[in-house]
Write a structure and sequence with these properties.
The chain is an alpha/beta fold. A hairpin with a 6-residue loop joins strand 1 and strand 2. Helix 10 packs across helix 11. The longest helix has 20 residues.
Length: about 300
């Protein structure tokens, strides 16, 4: 015969648990105290950027969800950067040939050679030879530190294909009042200031820039796609299944939303470039040389 220590019910069919509670009282027992909510993620962009430049990017505060933290970290840095003023300068920019030097290795480079660069990305109206640039973004890094963003939509001469919109989310309505790409070439050229360019699958972006008139002759360009293939491996030392930008960044704990929009892609690629430099030169602190410690 069982008897509940709380309500006193007893009888041959009453079953009590190890605490002496019947089923009814056990179900009424107070639940365990709820876990306190995780603290909201409030970050200081200077501290975050410093951590990116001076450590391998593979740790995070344990109080936070790892995915939420890395996403907040990315947005914190990007949102803190000033945006360059875009000037529309009417001009006729005839297309040209891609005459830049695309580098797939760091051979012959020193840390000082790599400290200043512009990460760049384009989105296009379609695929194939008829494609036009409908968005271009660039992030300038000085002494390995991101300092300014250039971003603008561009109005193409032909309509944006549904297939392109499905990928990048840019439609014809969004670009109807945007400048032509030729109109922003002088501003973009001034922003990049002759610095080396960084792009993921660089031949594509540089071909698009060149054919629409952006001056590429003599430009030094680092392609993070082959660089990632040569330097990034999984924990077992095997090659990654994919070296697309998002996958390569994920391997370096760089998580971001807005893939296939040029600003997010350009900034993510710039951060990826920093991580590739660290791996190639075997250092976690890119500011280890005193002359590079500038903010």
């Amino acid at each position: 015969m069982g008897k509940c220590v709380r309500c006193g019910i007893s009888g041959g069919f009453v079953k009590v648990d190890e605490q002496g509670l019947c089923v009814i009282c056990r179900n009424k027992a107070p639940k365990s105290a709820p876990k306190p909510p995780k603290p909201s993620i409030v970050l200081d962009p200077d501290e975050v950027i410093t951590r990116y430049v001076t450590t391998y990017h593979n740790t995070y505060p344990s109080d936070y969800n790892v995915v939420e933290y890395y996403l907040a970290e990315f947005n914190c840095m990007l949102d803190s950067l000033p945006c360059a003023e875009i000037s529309r300068i009417p001009c006729d920019a005839p297309g040209g040939e891609m005459e830049c030097v695309i580098l797939k290795k760091f051979d012959g480079c020193t840390l000082s050679d790599l400290s200043d660069f512009v990460a760049i990305d384009t989105e296009t109206s379609s695929i194939g030879m008829s494609a036009e640039i409908i968005e271009v973004s660039a992030v300038r890094f000085e002494h390995f530190r991101p300092v300014e963003v250039f971003e603008t939509l561009c109005k193409p001469y032909r309509r944006i294909s549904p297939q392109a919109t499905a990928v990048n989310g840019i439609d014809n309505e969004m670009v109807k009042n945007a400048p032509r790409f030729a109109e922003i070439i002088p501003t973009l050229d001034e922003f990049s200031d002759g610095l080396p360019l960084v792009a993921h699958n660089a031949p594509f972006d540089l071909r698009m820039l060149a054919q629409e008139g952006f001056p590429t002759a003599g430009r030094q360009v680092f392609d993070t796609l082959p660089l990632a293939r040569s330097l990034l491996r999984d924990r077992d030392g095997n090659k990654l299944p994919s070296y697309k930008l998002a996958e390569a960044c994920k391997q370096c704990a760089i998580l971001f939303s807005g893939a296939h929009r040029s600003t997010a892609d350009a900034f993510a690629d710039g951060l990826l470039f920093l991580e590739l430099i660290k791996r190639r030169f075997g250092t976690e602190n890119l500011w280890q040389t005193p002359t590079l410690w500038k903010k």
